[in-house]
Specification:
alpha+beta; 101 residues; 2 helices; 3-stranded antiparallel β-sheet; binds zinc ion; 3 strands
Length: 101
Amino acid sequence: MPIYDYRCENCGRFEKKQRITESPLTECPNCGGQVERLISRNVGIIFKGPGFYCTDHRNVKERARAVNRERQKDNQALLDGDVGGYVKQSEQTDKKIAEGL
Ligand SMILES: [Zn+2]
């Protein structure tokens, strides 16, 4: 499901997950104030976890690919129904990312 950015006249910016078929919010779920939907960014892919916020890296694309490869291993473990393996794999991936891969 894509995430849309909204701005509330009272609360400021917030994000809301919505189906594509849902109509945009007109009032804030927090305060009922008026909201406007901001121009959406790329909503096609949502990456899990940290690792995509490091813009000072020399080769961001290459890093994103490497991170994605690691995350795929996480997801594969989950798809296999191996929750223990997923947690372990995911922790390893977090560590690798923290170390800069
Ligand atoms: Zn509000």
